[in-house]
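PROTEIN DESIGN WORKSHEET
SECTION A - STRUCTURE
LENGTH: 298
TOKENS:
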């Protein structure tokens, strides 16, 4: 499915308010009879300065889409741009640098280093890259996230919500072009989860960041500007200014299709979108090891 910006000339994403773009993005795992088509010729534009959520049943390709857009995974066919840079075809070393310099990552498991305090965790990726943080920006991030009084605390001395805020600050610290968040509230209670979603929202509204978030939670998706719905490796729908109820209703339709297939026995269950997963917590192991991601170095 093409978003309205699809008419723009390919490869000119930087100037036209598109933070990331994919055309014909196809990803297959394995080969022969065991091959899985995780993404099936996806066209998508991620608008700059917006908060985009990616939803869909379990196995629909959400994490794969995020990993391919972030240059964490190779593609089988198609093209991906980050800003004006086509990343498909880049060598691993160039990709590593691009991820390090231009992308921030947040995962549900936080991935903080236990022996470092909050301040050290926040700047670690930049320290490894030999980059000096922009102190004014860093102060703004720390104050926006309410971490000023916690900077000397180590992760074990912080609540889950505070740890995720540190992870959020770490993702924001280098002022990346794009932040990818994979189930960032998956390990948090609802209050802490709401807090983190509020901060991601503020990062977009007040700090001008671009956020892409994979989630199973309609309530979390309601904090975004736009929800992309994936099924069977394709973007099948999108929703502007989502509400939790509207997202839930849309997600139920995936379940309905599955139930129809199950109920009639007319077709194989596997021909329907995979099992619905509203509210299902994500699995910590299904993202790429984030130590590779957050601590990228040459
Ligand atoms: N490394 C891999 N090897 C083989 N198949 C894979 C691999 N990673 C993902 N897949 C398959 O690709 C499809 C899409 O997986 P993906 O993790 O992107 O889905 P998802 O929508 O993020 O799922 P979930 O909501 O359960 O996390 C699934 O059928 C999955 O089994």
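SECTION B - SEQUENCE
RESIDUE ASSIGNMENT:
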């Amino acid at each position: 499915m093409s978003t309205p910006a699809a008419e723009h000339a390919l490869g000119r994403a930087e100037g036209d308010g598109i933070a990331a773009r994919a055309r014909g993005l196809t990803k297959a795992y394995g080969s022969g009879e065991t091959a899985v088509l995780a993404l099936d010729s996806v066209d998508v534009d991620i608008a700059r300065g917006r908060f985009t959520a990616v939803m869909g049943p379990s196995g629909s390709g959400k994490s794969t889409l995020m990993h391919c857009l972030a240059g964490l995974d190779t593609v089988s066919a198609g093209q991906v741009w980050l800003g004006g840079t086509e990343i498909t075809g880049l060598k691993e070393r160039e990709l590593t640098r691009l991820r390090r310099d231009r992308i921030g990552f947040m995962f549900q498991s936080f991935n903080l280093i236990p022996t470092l305090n909050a301040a050290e965790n926040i700047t670690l990726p930049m320290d490894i890259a030999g980059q000096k943080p922009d102190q004014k920006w860093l102060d703004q991030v720390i104050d926006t996230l309410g971490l000023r009084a916690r900077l000397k605390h180590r992760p074990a001395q912080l609540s889950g919500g505070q740890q995720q805020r540190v992870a959020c600050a770490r993702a924001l610290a280098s002022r990346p072009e794009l932040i990818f968040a994979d189930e960032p509230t998956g390990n948090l209670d609802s209050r802490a989860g709401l807090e983190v979603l509020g901060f991601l929202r503020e990062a977009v509204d007040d700090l001008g960041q671009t956020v892409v978030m994979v989630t199973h939670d309609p309530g979390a998706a309601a904090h975004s500007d736009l929800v992309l719905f994936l099924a069977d490796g394709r973007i099948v729908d999108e929703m502007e200014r989502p509400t939790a109820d509207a997202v839930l209703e849309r997600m139920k339709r995936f379940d309905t299709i599955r139930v129809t297939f199950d109920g009639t026995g007319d077709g194989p269950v596997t021909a329907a979108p995979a099992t619905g997963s509203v509210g299902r917590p994500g699995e910590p192991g299904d993202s790429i090891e984030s130590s590779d991601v957050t601590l990228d170095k040459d």
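SECTION C - NOTES
The pocket of adenosine-5'-triphosphate is lined by residues 29-30, 36, 38, 56, 58-64, 277, 282, 286 (CB under 6 Å).
The mean pLDDT is 81.
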